[in-house]
């Protein structure tokens, strides 16, 4: 997505629980491709931080990778995408998870390049995940929303559930006169940035604010992290929010209008967004950032998605760190990692082409010469 607004200045946020990575020696000979499925291949501790939407997937990736490599411990702190990028740039973690790519106009690209010894940081999609529009409205189990209506709700212009603009797409629903309470993220969030990018692109002018990870207006309620938004929607009445579909739980989920049809947040529909989108121009070959086409009218595409990235360096000062990052990222984008996250986190497995591109980039990770 194109990001033009200014995020808060980066700070050297080095988490005490993550600290500076201390790693034991690894067994893999130089320049040999790491097989992430080979038990006992690696040992040491690897620390990462970032996207809370990635938390469920990170849990199964950690478990699978550590099962294959019993002498490895992988820690992941779901502090949010903004916090993960900050910690990575500050050198506090070896990799970051982020639901939006590094911003050029906010100094993140240059900051990451400086941290990575003067070479561009790599960014690879970990998975494509649908962002569910979750709601809690008594008596309404199914809900359809056009993008301009959704934008009007979150912009505070549509305030009651029986508004004619909502009723138009839901002729069979018994919509109450309940006041709408929109719930947004309180923290700097890649999920927020992807969600408001959708509102901006597809909302037909009903969302006048620039896409940003920080919620731009004072309205509704705020929840800390994905779990905070889900909790606020669940514990309220007439509430509506947005969250990674894998963490929506038993909350009702709306369908959004795409062209002349209504589409729900299935992994298959979410995965199609990359097929109608282009890579961001002017990036390094190791940067697989995508400019998502949220306003697509293509049938069967669910455009309210996040493409969740893993951010790392091409080289690291010591070989054990390089081998652990290379091994873990190889596992994540490999067949087993993609399958486990699809089964456990509801993500859309990467297409063969994107998976091959990502694996080729990861295989280039090495120790500084």
Question: How would you characterize the overall build of this protein?
Answer:
Helices cover 30% and strands 20% of the residues. The longest helix has 15 residues, at 319-333. The strands form four sheets. Strands 1, 2, 3, 4, 6, 7, 8, 9 and 14 form a nine-stranded mixed sheet that branches. It has eleven helices and 16 strands. Helix 2 (81-90) packs across helix 3 (108-115), helix 4 (147-154) packs across helix 6 and helix 9 (319-333) packs antiparallel against helix 11. It has 369 residues and is α/β, with parallel strands linked by helices. Helix 1 (55-68) links the parallel strand 1 and strand 2.
Secondary structure elements and pairings:
Elements: E1 43-50, H1 55-68, E2 71-77, H2 81-90, E3 95-98, H3 108-115, E4 122-136, E5 144-145, H4 147-154, H5 164-169, E6 181-185, H6 190-202, E7 221-223, H7 225-235, E8 239-244, E9 252-253, E10 255-258, E11 261-263, H8 267-271, E12 278-279, E13 290-291, E14 305-312, E15 315-316, H9 319-333, H10 335-345, H11 352-362, E16 366-367
Parallel strand pairs: 1-2, 1-3, 5-10, 6-7, 6-8, 15-16
Antiparallel strand pairs: 3-14, 4-8, 4-9, 4-14, 10-11, 12-13
